[in-house]
Design brief:
The complex is a heterotrimer of chains A (about 100), B (about 300) and C (about 350). Chain A has 4 helices and 6 strands. Chain A is of the alpha+beta class. In chain A, the strands form 2 sheets. A 3-stranded antiparallel β-sheet of chain A has the order 5-1-6. Chain A has a 3-stranded antiparallel β-sheet with strand order 2-3-4. Chain C has one domain. The chains are: A alpha+beta (about 100), B alpha+beta (about 300), C alpha/beta (about 350).
Chain lengths: ~100, ~300, ~350
């Protein structure tokens, strides 16, 4: 719930536990510890690609998705981020209010 | 020196006294073959394979023997021994030669983890590598035998060895295993193909092997870069159709069809990723071999 | 070929540098013996530690590379599994105490290098078993047997509950409350083990104290009945002893602790055979026969253990190995269970084997 109210910073896991390929139609992501391979497409791929470049705030991610015509509701982004966090594909850290 | 440099009599006499030591692709195999059908299998299919000297390293030490029980005589069986152990239950005696091929597949697939091993046939035409991956029954062996029959180089029928070092496919040319109707299809399609004795009623149905071309065996040291990854599907009456697959889908399907993707961890992901990066991925539906062969020749020229 | 005495594998484990003098047929034999003994990756690590790895000829090296790739992935998978188990136990405010292979990996022991195993073993206080089992079940681990006899066998007599398997990951977990079955006459007091367990610095994992790790390994091997991995388990002991022997007072503590835990006999054999087969530098003072233990029994056991501790490869398998393993199997059950429980139990096991064979 806290996700919805404060802005958060989204990052790749800092322990180097991911290997990934970014292709035109999606991202293939391998998690070194769980040994699982994920194939992300659509909004998920856009989010992952953005996060893989540098840490990014949830708000910036939302803007980026809106600009690309994907996922209009913030709630959908929250769901997606929570799912990726559970799979250890991303890390989410709270930010001080700005 | 190759196996065929011995006369047939000297060959079977030699095998009764000592094991055959063969270079099968990158692997040195020692095979105790006292059973006549296995000797015949070697004579038909492995004539062009180099012999490994006694002072060399042996990767896999294999024997096919009759069990020391009543099953030696009554409803005779055959055992596959790897380093003195039996990884499988015995099979009917008539299946001894096929058992050697299946057992050798197992030896490679469970030990050669310096490769990403994909359940796939690999053939090459003018430097262009084609990897045909798919579950049994997808028609990849038939397609492979057809292409090889029309002059493509055979690198593998069942096991594509993708090197973790450079991403190239290391050849391990072996007899091509054909099942059921495929045997008649290939006999008609390439009348020159040498097909060894056929075994009936195996767990996979009727099985026969096509002798690998000498030229492919001689070139077993020459690796190939994969340009096209194809997931074929034979469908009676289907129109020949090649359609592009996304690289991600290709990667997931390679992982699905791999023997050791999960064992290799991140190396497996990187090897499969590099393979997809350097190649085009396709789904392929076919029923006419002639059209299929023409299509792949076009793709690789 | 000589079938008794030390195998080529044992000679190389005792002194990895001797491998460099081998010719290619000997390398074939060494790799095959290591593979049969489930120690191929460990051979790779030992050669690396000795600085000899780069001088291994190409062909055998490919097999070592292959085994090392598997071992690396296995190590990551074990750590992942331990994290998952820790998440369950920490919710119950219990420490995750690892045993055997998982402990060697968690503690970063040399015995964890190239140590492949199928189950993760953990130790919890017996009083917490029910809560742990319930929490694990809730988190996706399911018991592997619903057979009422098996359930009773484990819960009434064994030192662990029936193995649990994770539904999604298909990994197996053995939850122990002791290191030997309750029915063992010399069963150690598990609270002593837990009391001395220690946290691995910088991790959430706990392991038994060094001397207890050795004693558990010794009890498992020399009271146990499974000899397929006999050589590998002996090598575990060798590596643990070599690693811990540098700690001050280690050998004294080990001997003292063996008395406290009632495990002098397995320790005696552990030190006897590591020194004999793997040239472990065990001080002479530590190698005394326990007081009152008959020398004739040692001679008899030598005949059995020497056969069972060989790598399970035709080149080191004497014709009497099977017989020796069978006698040791019966012995292990005799040690673990009183006769009035043992006879019906073995009878039941054989009967069940016969029945499944007929159905096959």
């Amino acid at each position: 719930m806290a996700l919805t109210f404060t802005n958060v910073l989204v990052n790749l896991p800092k322990d180097g536990s991911l290997a990934f390929r970014i292709w035109q139609d999606g991202c293939a992501v391998y998690h070194v510890y769980s040994g699982e391979t994920h194939w992300l497409q659509g909004a998920g791929a856009i989010v992952f690609e953005r996060v893989s470049q540098h840490a990014v705030t949830k708000q910036a991610l939302h803007q980026h998705l809106l600009a690309g015509g994907m996922l209009t509701e913030l709630r959908e982004l929250d769901t997606l981020l929570a799912e990726y966090q559970a799979l250890s594909l991303i890390e989410i850290s709270p930010m001080k209010n700005t | 020196m190759t196996l065929s440099s011995l006369s047939p009599n000297a060959f079977s006499r030699a095998l009764r006294q000592q094991p055959a030591q063969l270079a099968v692709g990158p692997f040195h195999v020692r095979l105790y073959a006292t059973i006549a059908s296995v000797q015949q299998h070697l004579a038909v299919h492995y004539g062009a394979f180099p012999v490994v000297g006694d002072d060399d390293f042996i990767d896999f030490d294999i024997a096919l023997v009759r069990p020391l029980s009543l099953r030696r005589y009554y409803r005779a069986q055959v055992l596959f021994l790897f380093e003195g152990h039996t990884p499988f239950k015995p099979l009917p005696f008539a299946q001894a030669a096929a058992f050697f091929e299946w057992g050798l597949n197992w030896c490679i697939a469970s030990h050669a983890h310096r490769y990403l091993m994909v359940h796939a046939a690999v053939v090459e035409w003018q430097g262009c590598g084609l990897l045909l991956a798919g579950a049994p029954g997808s028609g990849k062996s038939t397609l492979c035998a057809a292409l090889v029959g029309r002059g493509w180089r055979l690198l593998s029928d069942e096991l594509a060895l993708v090197s973790l070092d450079d991403g190239l496919v290391t050849p391990v040319p072996r007899p091509i295993s054909l099942k059921n109707q495929s045997l008649a299809v290939i006999r008609a399609f390439c009348p020159d193909a040498v097909i060894g004795p056929v075994v009936y009623d195996t767990s996979k149905g009727t099985v026969g092997h096509v002798r690998p071309p000498d030229a492919s065996v001689i070139q077993a040291q020459v690796p190939v870069k994969i340009r096209h990854i194809v997931f074929p599907k034979y469908q009676a009456g289907a129109v020949t159709k090649l359609s592009t697959l996304s690289k991600g889908y290709g990667l997931l399907k390679l992982a699905d069809n791999s023997f050791n993707y999960s064992i290799l961890g991140v190396h497996g992901f990187n090897a499969a990723g590099d393979l997809c990066d350097g190649a085009d991925c396709h789904a392929f539906r076919y029923s006419q071999l002639e059209e299929a062969v023409a299509l792949f020749a076009g793709l690789c020229s | 070929m000589k079938k008794t005495g030390r195998s080529l594998l044992a000679a190389v484990f005792a002194d990895p540098n001797t491998a460099l003098a081998l010719d290619l047929p000997q390398w074939s034999l060494l790799i095959a013996q290591a593979r049969r003994a489930n120690t191929l990756a460990r051979l790779g690590f030992l050669l690396k530690a000795a600085g000899s790895y780069d001088n291994v000829p190409t062909k055998p090296k490919q097999h070592l590379d292959s085994a090392l790739v598997c071992a690396d992935r296995f190590d990551l998978a074990v750590h992942h599994e331990l994290r998952c188990i820790h998440a369950v136990l920490s919710a119950l405010a219990l420490p995750l105490v690892c045993l055997k292979g998982a402990a060697y990996v968690a503690a970063g022991n040399r015995a964890g290098l190239g140590r492949l195993f199928s189950d993760i073993d953990i130790l919890v206080p017996e009083a917490c078993l029910a809560a742990v089992e319930a929490a694990l079940t809730k988190a996706g681990w399911m018991t592997t047997t619903l057979d009422p006899y098996d359930q009773k066998y484990y819960r009434q007599w064994m030192h662990e509950i029936p193995p649990m398997r994770h539904l999604r990951r298909q990994t197996t977990l053995d939850v122990h409350h002791n290191i030997l079955p309750k029915t063992t006459t010399s069963c150690p007091d598990a609270s002593l083990l837990l009391a001395n367990s220690q946290q691995v610095p910088g991790t959430d994992y706990w392991v038994l104290a060094p001397e207890d790790r050795v004693l558990h390994s010794a009890a498992h091997l020399f009271y146990g009945g499974e000899w397929d991995n006999g050589f590998r388990d002996l090598s575990d002991l060798d590596l643990l002893l070599r690693e811990f022997s540098g700690q001050p007072e280690f050998w004294c503590r080990l001997a003292q602790r063996a008395v406290e835990l009632n495990l002098q006999i397995p320790l005696y054999y552990a030190l006897r055979y590591t020194a004999h087969l793997l040239k472990t530098p065990v001080p002479t003072a530590a190698r005394h026969r326990p007081a009152g233990y008959p020398p004739l029994q040692v001679r008899w056991m030598d005949g059995l253990f020497e056969r069972a501790l060989q790598p399970n490869h035709p080149s080191c398998r004497s014709r009497t190995r099977e017989l020796a393993c069978w006698v040791l199997y019966l012995r292990s059950h005799g040690l673990r269970m009183p006769l009035h429980l043992l006879v019906p139990h073995l009878w039941r096991k054989e009967w069940r084997k016969l029945r499944t064979r007929r159905q096959a």
